[in-house]
Amino acid sequence: MSNLGFLAVGYGFIWLVLGSYVFSLARRQGGLNRQVDRLERELELTREAAPGR
Amino acid sequence: MAEEQTLKRTFAEAPPAVIEQRGGRGGDRSLWVDALGAGSILAILFALYLALIWAPTEAVMGDIQRLFYFHVAAAWLALGPSFGVVAACSVLYLWKKDLRYDRIASASAELGVMFTTITLVTGPIWARPIWGAYWTWDPRLTTTLVLWFIFVAYLMLRSAVDAGHKRARLSAVFGIVGWIDVPIVFMSIRWWRTIHPTVIASEGGGLAPDMRLALFVAIGAFTLLYAYLLVVRVRQEDLATRLDRVRHQLYLR
Amino acid sequence: MGFLGQAWTIAWKDILGELRTREMVFSMLLFGFLVILIFNFGIEPGLRDEALVKPGVLWAAFVFAGILGLNRSFSSEKENDCLQGLLLCPVDRAVIYLGKFLGNFVFVLAMSLAVLLFFSVLYNVDVIAVLPGLLAILGLATIGFCAVGTLFSAVSVGIKTRDVLLAILLFPVLVPVILAAAKSSAFVMNGEGLFAGGSWLAMLVVYDVVFLAVSVMVFDYVLEE
Lengths: 53, 253, 225
Known about the structure:
The complex is a heterotrimer. Chain B has helices at residues 2-13, 17-22, 31-54, 68-96, 99-131, 139-160, 165-192, 209-252. Chain B is an all-alpha fold. Chain B has one domain (30-195, 206-252). The longest helix of chain B has 44 residues, at 209-252. Chain B starts with a helix and ends with a helix. Chain C is an all-alpha fold. Chain C has one domain (3-222). Chain C is built from 8 helices and no strands.
């Protein structure tokens, strides 16, 4: 493999690792947001069901 | 029916803590975090330009030497901030008993694994055409490998214990011991053997000024990225903890 | 009763239990013998006489056999809630650590002496001539091994996967001990004397002092309930 080939592999690896970490962070954030939304909906629903509290 | 009524009442009584603490729609965000993220992306693009185009080609090693800038930056983050934050937050946790420190330490250890992996993989890729071998048992390589094992052991320990103060205590103890161990590992392996090029040992070593600038920009850019990812990760853990707490209040009261 | 007296009481409790059951040290040294035997098949006969191969085999056997003992150190206390009883003792936590450390030290040292004997016969090392040097190294390495090992044994005690976890936690942290012990015992086995590898000895001493001190300080947090 040529010098530039090694360079490409190296840089490719760096951004692959960083990219997949950022991707996993984004997925996790999405999951958390969904959970919060669901909890909020439940809270609002019960508030309507039990007014005056 | 009565049971259902009480359940609904507890739901209604539950303070809208989640909504308030989360800071409105769009997740756990604030302006400075977004600015940090944007800044680190810009810095990385600039560092890439400097490393790949602007910096002169190294006379002996050729283009492969351009891997060096991010290799060193990743190594710096693994050995310096990542592990330093783990150790500091471990001490702070044992002192203050605040689980937030534990969350910071775990986020930093995760990033540490990532940066150590980058260092360990880019090193051999660079070494193969230059030294003719992927791996040598050189002090810095070997220390980084040992460091990787310590980081992974730290995360394994965390994954084996249920979340809470016990996990925080145990991992803090391991984090502190591991951190104290790393310099001793380095010393011992240095006495054992050394061939690694010394880069910034004395007055910049044999590095051309342009290369040194590119190196420092790469280090700065990666440090910004580390800070950004750390903040994002810690905030996620904070949010997850709050979610757990609210759920606990709702369902178990 | 003084500080050391209390620690020795705890250690003696472990030693007495071991003398009655004789299950741990025996299985440890048998395992150590087996490691030496297995290594023998992995190394070409010509290579076996290389100066640096022999200490490597010895210390690999030491580490792999020693960790078996550490595994049992605190998990044996879990049975019948002995750990609770130990924690209820009106002594400092540092004393409990030192007691367990002393017990482990005795077990690992006994095991390693037997392994050393077995090794010297199978690998044709004249141990008698270099015994004082080797004993000094063995003692220092065992202190370092047990200092960190006792702490991590307590860390991993309540965990489902504790056996594997202890090895994963302990081995990376032990790198300086293994390296220093292998290097200095290579000097000794070559007949160059104990102080030819003086800086390695110094490293062992530093490691022992540092990690005994750190472990005594942080042990309190490990067993906090």
